[in-house]
Amino acid sequence: MKRLFIVLSILLSFSVQSQQIIPLNEKPYLDSLQNVLNSTTQNTSKANASFLLSNYYRNIDSLLSKKYLENGKTFINGNSFLSAKYDFYQAQYYLDRSKGKAASFYQKAIKELSKFKNEESDLLQASAWYSYGVAQKDKEGYPFLVKTILEKSIPLARKYKNSRNLGFLYTQLAVVFTYNAEFKKSEEYNHKALEILEKHYAKSSELFFTYLNIANNFCYQARGDDAKKFLDKAEKLISPSPDSSVNAFYYYSKTLYFITRQKNSDALPVIDKGIFYTKKFNQNMLAQMFYFNKFDILKKLKRYEEAKKVLEDVLAEKSLAIDLKNRKTFYKQLSALNEEMGNPKEALVWEQKYSKLNDSLNTENVKLEINKIESKYNASEKERKIATLNAEKNQKDLEVNKKNSYLWGLSLILLLVISLLIFLWIIFRKNKKISEQKINEIKQKEELSLTKAILEGEERERERVARDLHDGLGGMLAGVKINFSTWSASHLDTEKDKEFYRILGQLDNSVSELRHVARNLMPESLLNFGLETALNDLCEFYHRKDIEIDFQAINIEKNLPINIQLNIYRIVQELLANAIKHANASNILLQCSQSGENFFITIEDNGKGFVHNAEQKTKSMGLHNLKNRVDYLKGNMEISSDNQGTTINIELNIDGE
């Protein structure tokens, strides 16, 4: 469990400190930037203020962050340095949304910034290299991140010996070493950061986070007294700013301290204070970290029902659970907790969820744990039955001892008959259950075969109609239009025969619409460039001025069978159409990701929602077709909808048919 807290805490540190650190007293800082936008006439100042505001809000309010970013772009007016800064802050915006996009924009910013030889350019390049390493960490690993900081970021910042950027980079390098359990190296770089920050930036945010990182490092080494010294220093810095968003990070480090000192009861009110700040500043990920710590403490205090409720809420909120490894940990914890509470049946359910997810992450030997819990469950059931039978037998024995041998023999025979009936009833129920399962399996196979035939026939018919429309009717209409255009050029006057040319324009529009229908029936980009490109084109097609679609693709392989790609494309097409046509949504988030043999689709919109009852057969043809395709790919679909929007999560099995 201690290692788990290290993993989650460090990941959180990267998420937070990859952004530019702002002053601890945030309100005057934000007010000054707003004053620049409202008062000054200099485009450079307005652009810089907009970029900094975008960076501040990027993890709090994404729409507002995007608004300030694009507002800053309007003030560039050919200024190449501002253009390079725009690339940097655009990368910052995408860092927690699309690491691939972020990495691309960081490289672009570095290339453009390197053309300028000044302090601001060098320090921005240092930050860009560091953030690029963070963006590539999951792909390249921690050695790549360390190498990037040491060979790219620090040499640029070291040109300006006592810069706060250099202190910040030393601190972040220390965080990396802490995560990899190299605590002595972490202390070394934290000390280098302190030499700069305590001397030159005594009240800075960089120094505040350095104190917290040092305290955390000592906590992970179970050196509580050393951690307390630096935690007190951090508290002294933040206490004058009770309205600052970074208070949440102080309370998180304080929580780790109490856990280290095994003062679990003292940690609970600290966690509640931290949760207050996370809710105030929309720090969802950090809030879930607090809740997870609260779960662990309540479990240690044997307040099992409260602990269970906390962890179930963390799963429902999804900020932490969206990461598959975190979700796997939560399932395991719930299984262990229910087992400890004496709920073997519920423990088995959570263990099976853990096993299923663990298999999707290519982890073996989980079935041993399932069998262990299942054996315990079966054993407890057998013991309960045996105990019941023994109780009945003991009661009978007492009665037999009071009666004559005839009644004793009769009672014994009766007991044997009852046991035999119970045994036969159990066998009957078991055989009946097995028969029902076989019937259901046959029925499911038949339904799957029927669905497969319908879907394949539908796609073949789509392809045929699309080909006939495009090559046949489309070609004929295009030829008619060309002939009319050629004839009118030599026989008609543009001014006198306006009605003819209006009709000719309608014919041209009809040809375009027919080709659009043909492409919609069979998307050429899917056949030529693969699923990810086709989905991106589909989102672009639905994009309007009043509709914002954020498409995120994660690890989608290009070698998927074409029928799998086509079915996934149709599912996404139906989801987008429903969100736009029926829900009247103006903001849509679409995420498609692949993990081994599983494909995940999540779509969220801010539309008007709809009433959905999973137990009743839907009357919507669109949802019916959607369910058929999900069942065809042996998938699961969860729908959550209210008047504030709709969320649909789909998990598909793409391991052949």
From TrEMBL:
Keyword Coiled coil listed = yes
Keyword Thylakoid listed? The answer is: no
Cleavable signal peptide: 1-18
Q: What is this protein called?
A: histidine kinase
The lineage's top-level taxon is Bacteria
Alphabetically ordered keywords of this record: ATP-binding, Coiled coil, Kinase, Membrane, Nucleotide-binding, Phosphoprotein, Signal, Transferase, Transmembrane, Transmembrane helix, Two-component regulatory system
Task: Spell out the reaction equation it catalyses.
Answer: ATP + protein L-histidine = ADP + protein N-phospho-L-histidine
Database matches in InterPro entries: HATPase_C_sf (IPR036890), HATPase_dom (IPR003594), His_kinase_dom (IPR005467), Sensor_HK_TwoCompSys (IPR050482), Sig_transdc_His_kin_sub3_dim/P (IPR011712), TPR-like_helical_dom_sf (IPR011990)
Q: Which terms in the Gene Ontology molecular function aspect does this entry carry?
A: ATP binding; phosphorelay sensor kinase activity; protein dimerization activity
What are the annotated GO cellular component locations? membrane
Which part of the chain is the Histidine kinase domain?
A: 464-656
- Organism of origin: Chryseobacterium artocarpi
First-level EC class: transferase
User: Which residues are listed as membrane-spanning?
Assistant: 406-428
Tell me which stretches of the chain form a coiled coil.
363-399
Cite the EC number: 2.7.13.3
